[in-house]
Design goal:
CATH topology of the largest domain: Alkaline Phosphatase, subunit A
Low-confidence stretches: 1-8
Helix content: 40-55%
Structural class: alpha/beta
CATH class of the largest domain: Alpha Beta
CATH architecture of the largest domain: 3-Layer(aba) Sandwich
Radius of gyration: 28 Å
Largest sheet: 9 strands, mixed
Number of helices: 21
Number of strands: 17
Shape: elongated
Mean pLDDT: 88
Distance between the termini: 51 Å
CATH superfamily of the largest domain: Alkaline Phosphatase, subunit A
Amino acid sequence: MTGIRKRIGLMSGRRQFFIAWTLATGAWIAGIFLRAALYFRLTPYGQPFVAHWDRYFFHSLFYNLFGAFILLAPFAVYWLWHHEREHEPQSARRGHLGLMALLTLGLFCDQFDAETMRSMGVHATPSFVRTYWQVGGSMDMLIRSMNHDAGGSWSAFIVAGVVIGGFLLWALRYLSRALSTQEGPQWSRRASMVAAALPVIAVLIAVYTPGGKFRYRKVRPYIMVLTSELTADTTVGKRPENYGALVDAYQQTWLFESGDEGWRFDDPERPYVRTPDQPSAPSAEERWNVILLQVETLRALEVGALDRRLRPSPTPNLDALATGPNGALWGRFMTFGPPTVTGTMSGHCGVRPHSRHNVTTRYTYVGFLCLPQLLRGHGYTAEYFTGSDPDWDGQSYWLAQWYDAHHFYRDAQESDEVVLKRATDRIIEMGRSGQPFMATIATISNHYPFNSRDPKTDIAGHDSIRDRIKNTTHYSDAVIGTMIERLRAETFFQKTLFVVYGDHGYNLGEHTPAGQRNGFHESTWSPLIIAGAHPRLPKGRHHQLGGLMDIAPTIADILGFRIRNPWSGHSLIRPHERRTLAHTKNGITFAESPAHSVVFDRATGTPQVFAASDMHQTTPLTGQESAAQELRSRAEARAALNDYLIETGSVWTSIGD
């Protein structure tokens, strides 16, 4: 750095601005290399960071540009303000060295955050890091993970050392040359202001291109991650004052509502965990295959088997599956409303959603017992098929844990016809192998704004969104029917359970202005259909209450698994006329009891109460305020316990296990 210390003539603010801008550009280029190393290495567990790198990489370049230049901002403002003033290089040196240090720190933080996302599927916010250590994270565990990294042992440190060290060496050499001479590029004030505006323009492009906001959650630089701490949830991990009472109430209520007293809650650290008095599992000869169809936005309001007024029915194939000789239909089955990830987590893992956050993108350190994991532990293969990018909502991190393989057909362009055809081809291969299997297909075509996929399958008009959803529901139903007919010719069909449910409903303005979620049945009500010749499946129509949390325990019970588990749901093949479902999330509270359904106004808290038989919720009841408030109290109590157990990793297994 002797050149920097050398006294030379004065330098203009124009020249100093260019030097600072060049340092920030160098940091941005270094960040490109860090991002490339992130996308083109496997995760520590042997999976790609994202299934299709090009959907994220170029957006991350725009966001990283902003990340580097936001650190430049105070220096750029100073040099713009003193653009025409002459400065001594010795006095400017301290500012440039400070900027260099900030940019180096920014690169280090970006790398730390990216490696956390790569290994745990979540950003390394200070609140997350704090919670991670509170629930059992350890330095020994991190060392083991880095040593056995499928992307290369200690590759995170190697990449950081090469790229960040290279940037630091370049920056020192550049400053030595740039400050040792008066010669060099410099810009007019107007050109400097344009250069300073470029990162803002870059971010606007990234955000407002299709899918930009979704990608932002995954690829934003760490300085943007830190801004989320301004609205951080400070209640995370705080034990409720009435914790013991909440646990007792949950366990007693679960036993009361289950109709099955052959369980004991025997883990004081994990209150959901229960052990059967008489454990059992099917023998190899008794194992049935499972094909699970999670249908996008399958509202009960468009299912003919639940409403004979629908003519023609948008779902003739699902109707036939539900009402056929080997079909079972639960007509009072509730989801938790959008988004899809709630349906995926609750349906797979028997878990109630967190009341404020999405588990998939925030609580990746928490262990659950999910249905495909259970089956794989007993000799099954399990694969997942979808036409919707599971990386967007953080599902890939979980699918890699649950399934032997998960397939995202990007080139299908969200066509259920293409996805189900390819999935069926693979299912036939799996079935012919002779090994029991679970295959899960998540459809996508029946998605807002519900534009027709195939005019030949349209059964309604196109001007009204309530007509358009009939068309897209009918389209998805048609391709499901084609899949079932193909599989019917296979010998393994006779020993296969078909399970169909909706991930959520959608508010199309039936009770409140149109939008995703409102707590009414248009957002939450979906059918559950299970079909197959299994002797334990109770055929016919069932009117008792069920929900997403019941899918895993129900399928396990039908298959013959009676094992230790942490599922909050119940098996629907056992009598359970006493069930109540009460839930709250993000200010929306709704409840279902044997006698009523209740929806609370988000702004005022005022309840609307309907008879349980009034599935379209057309006639509010009066004089039911006390019953409604009791259900609200139950929803809040369940949320307080559930949130705490999820936040502290106390559902099933935690990091230290």
